[in-house]
Amino acid sequence: MLGVDAAREQVLAAVRPLPPVELPLLDAAGLVLAEDVVSDADIPPFRNSAMDGYALRAADVAGATAERPVRLTVVGEAAAGTGLPPAIGPGQAVRIMTGAPMPEGADTVVRFEETDEFDTGPRRSEVAVRRAVRAGENVREAGEDVRAGAVVLPRGTVLRPAAIGVLASLNRATVRVHRRPRVGILSTGDEVVDLGPPLRPGQIRNSNSYTLAALVRESGGEPVLLGVARDRTEEIRAKLRQAEDVDLLVTSGGVSIGDFDLVKQVLQAEGEVALWQVRIKPGKPMAFGRIGSVPLLGLPGNPVAAFVAFVQFGRPALRKMLGYRDPGIPTLRARLLSGHENRGRRRHFVRGIVERRGNEWVAWPCGLQGSGVLTSVTAANCLIILPETWDSAEPGDEVEVQLLDGVLPGGAA
């Protein structure tokens, strides 16, 4: 049988990052940059105040204390977005708001809380500063965030919310990214019925197409549902031929050794497809190859086996097509709180829960582990990995776990 790592390597070797497209900024959120983004301006573009207070010269208040404040003459006010304030000289200050340009001659800002203001007539004429301040305090320099000519976001950056904000600060209304892969999804089997009609004896609902479509969407792709094909050669062929303009085909069912598992026959006739026996549990039978120029991943029909196999092979393939530098699956090390057997010498992906307790991660299996028990996946936040060389795992063993949603549980940092 083929090892899990070797199977994943073959899948990844068969796909490439998709061609770049130019998208509006918000449509590119979550996608991967296909270009270096170089700034054509300093951000911020001018020196400005980081606080509400008084802009002044630090040297003028070098000896200021609460008991002996230093009085300065107020020569003007500055608010954000209202143009340049008046310049200051020795012994002078400008009342300033956050974001306003710094007056010429000022090198620091003292907060309102550290001053006493005095009015003579319709405006404040003097301010008493009760603390010595350093030059540069509470001042944001031009280019403090971004320098003109700098590579701000390199190719391969995932455009998370902060990156979208940076692009907006650079006046980028559009950006070049690797487009989302379109993934055709086909379920097979005489017993499989899509949503809508009541089930007759011996029939089951088509959950796989919807599980896989949700996984595709969660992984950054666009699912294209092709429905259900009965165990008829021509029907399977017809469904596959409907899959136009897709970047990946995913089927479920029909790849084992049963008499009615016709998908493998159709795939081998229609393209270059290898049948695999993968050392993985749940699941084992898989197919991988091409139908024309489109890669195809044939998954087992049992719901949990299809889920686990997609996470191990389909999700990394989509991440590579999206342009991720590392298409791998987030993992961490955890201590098992309860044991679990591993019959069959396959790499066992056990549905489980992982959480932080004190200074360590701990994990334990959850729910029934049969390959048809999909509800156990809904209760899990991880897959606990039992190596193929283990016959069982014991309480206290350290294992690797895969995070199902890629986020550390419990808000852990």
TrEMBL record:
Residues 184-320 form the MoaB/Mog domain. Pathway: Cofactor biosynthesis; molybdopterin biosynthesis. PROSITE patterns: MOCF_BIOSYNTHESIS_2. Its EC number is 2.10.1.1. Its cofactor is Mg(2+). GO terms for biological process: Mo-molybdopterin cofactor biosynthetic process. GO terms for molecular function: metal ion binding; molybdopterin molybdotransferase activity. Pfam families: MoCF_biosynth, MoeA_C, MoeA_N. Keywords: Magnesium, Metal-binding, Molybdenum, Molybdenum cofactor biosynthesis, Transferase. Transmembrane segments: none annotated. It is an enzyme of class 2 (transferase). GO terms for cellular component: cytosol. SUPFAM superfamilies: MoeA C-terminal domain-like, MoeA N-terminal region -like, Molybdenum cofactor biosynthesis proteins. It catalyses: adenylyl-molybdopterin + molybdate = Mo-molybdopterin + AMP + H(+). Belongs to the MoeA family. Catalyzes the insertion of molybdate into adenylated molybdopterin with the concomitant release of AMP. This is Molybdopterin molybdenumtransferase. It comes from Sphaerobacter thermophilus (strain ATCC 49802 / DSM 20745 / KCCM 41009 / NCIMB 13125 / S 6022).
